[in-house]
Amino acid sequence: MSNLPPQPLSPLDGRYRSAVVELGEHLSEAGLNRARVHVEVEWLIAQTDRGFFGASALTDDQKAALRAVVTDFAQADIDELAELEATTRHDVKAVEYYVRRRLSSLGLDAIAELTHFACTSEDINNLSYAVTVRDAVADAWLPKFDAVIDALADLARAHRDDAMLSRTHGQPATPSTMGKELAVFVHRLRRIRSQVIDTEYLGKFSGATGTFAAHLVAAPDASWPDISREFVESLGLTWNPLTTQIESHDWQAELYARISHANRVLHNLATDIWTYISLGYFRQIPQAGATGSSTMPHKINPIRFENAEANLELSSAVLDSLAATLVTSRLQRDLTDSSAQRNIGLGLGHSMLALDNIRRGLGEIDLDRDALAADLDANWEILGEAIQTVVRAEVVAGRSSISDPYAMLKELTRGRRVGAAELAEFVSGLDIGDEAKQRLLALTPGGYTGLAGDLVDRI
C-alpha cells in the first residue's frame, strides 16, 4: 500500500523524540535489558565474594571486566539479545545466555552455573525496573520538572507586586498579584516534588514464590533473607521481605500517582496561563519565522500550553492505569504486570513533553501591565468587600450604627459597575470613624492586594 520505510508509531519516538530522548537510556527495551545484565552481573559478583559452593572470589580485574559488559552495552549487544530471544522466546532467559557467553569469553566458565542462580525471572525483572525507573525519574523527568518550577519561581518574583484583578467563578473579585498566583503553583509543585524524591524503590530477591525454597535446599545453612537484603540494598534499593513471585509494585503505584498528581497541577497551570493570555494579561512574544495561523497572519496561538494540556492528560491516563493495574496479581503471579510495565516510558514521556512545552511557553510570554491596570480600573465595585468589612469592624468598635453593612454594599454593587467617583461619594457619606473613612478613600483596586507580595517571598 505504501513505499514508506518503517515509521515510529508513537509521536514520542517520532515528532517529539528530542524532548524525551533521555528516557530511552533507561525505559527502552534496550535500557531494561542492560539493567537486567547489570543485576545478573552484580549477583554473580556477590556470590563469588561469599565463596558460594567453593567458588573463588573474582579479582578486581575480573570484576571490572564483568562490569564493563554493562557499561559498554551497545547496539551489537542489543542485536545479540534479540537473536537469543528469538530462539528462547523468553526475554530474561536470553539475558542469562548472553551473560554466560560473556563469562566464557572472559575465561570464567567455572562460575557459569552461578548465573541466574536460584532466581526466578521476576527476581531480575523487579530489580531492573526499580533501577531503571529510579534513574529515569532522577536523570530525565526530574530535571525537566525542576526547570518548570524554577521558571515559575523566577516569574513569580519578577511579578511579585504586579496587581491584577482576580476572577473567582470567572467574575471580577478581590485583586491579587500575578506573582502571588504563580507562587501558588510553585508551592504546590514543590510539595509534590518532595513526595517524588521520598519514593522508596523496593526490590525483592526471594525466588519463585517469595519463600527462598530453592535457595534453602541448595544451601541450608545460609542466611538467605540477609543475603537477599544486602544484595537488594547494594543496588541502591529498599528490600521488600514479603512478596509473592513478584515484588508487589506498591511503590510504583505510589510514584505514578504522585507524578500524575503533578501532571494535574501542571494542567491547572497551563489552563490558567492560557486564560491570562486570552484576557490580554500576558502578551506572547513573536518567535522569528513562526506561523500562528495558516490564514490569519496576526495570530500567535498559545500552542505550548495547549500541547502541554493534551500530553499531561495522556500521561496521567497511562500512569493512572499502571497504578491501578500493577497492584493486583492473581494469587502468586500473573503476567499482566509484564505487559503494563513496558508502558512506563510512555507515561513519563508524555509528562516530559508537556514539561518541555510549559518551560518553553513560560519563556515566550510577557506581562502587559497596562492591561492589568485597565482591568482593575474598570472594576472599582470589587472594593465593596473592603468597605463592608471595615464598616463591620467600626460597628463592633462602637464607631458606627449601620445595621447591615453587607446588605448595604450588596445593594450598591451587586451586578453593576461602580466607578471611582461614585464609590468615593458613597464612602464619604458613611457613618464610620474618620481614620477608617480616610483609609477607604485612599484605597484603589490596584492597592487592594493584601499581603500578596509578602506571600511570594515564601517561595
Q: What's the total number of strands?
A: 6
The helix content, as a percent range, equals 55-70%
**CATH classification class of the largest domain:** Mainly Alpha
Instruction: State the shape.
Output: elongated
- Measured by DSSP, the beta-strand proportion falls in 5-15%
Structural class: mainly alpha
Structure description:
This protein is mainly alpha-helical. The protein folds into 3 domains: about 10-120, Orthogonal Bundle (Fumarase C, Chain B, domain 1); about 120-290 and about 295-370, Fumarase/aspartase (Central domain) (Fumarase C, Chain A, domain 2, Up-down Bundle), CATH 1.20.200; about 380-455, Fumarase/aspartase (C-terminal domain) (Ribonucleotide Reductase Protein R1, domain 1). About 60% of the residues lie in helices and about 5% in strands. It is built from 19 helices and 6 strands. It has helices at about 15-25, 30-50, 60-70, 75-90, 90-105, 120-160, 180-195, 215-220, 225-235, 250-280, 305-325, 335-340, 345-360, 370-375, 385-395, 405-415, 420-430, 435-440, 450-455, and strands at about 165-170, 170-175, 200-205, 240, 280-285, 365. The strands form 3 sheets. It has a two-stranded antiparallel sheet. A hairpin with a 2-residue loop joins strand 1 and strand 2. Helix 15 packs antiparallel against helix 16. The longest helix is centred in the N-terminal third of the chain and has 38 residues, at about 120-160. The two termini are about 60 Å apart. Pfam families: ASL_C, Lyase_1. InterPro entries: Fumarase/histidase_N (IPR024083), Fumarate_lyase_CS (IPR020557), Fumarate_lyase_fam (IPR000362), Fumarate_lyase_N (IPR022761), L-Aspartase-like (IPR008948), PurB_bact (IPR047136), PurB_C (IPR013539). Keywords: Lyase, Purine biosynthesis.
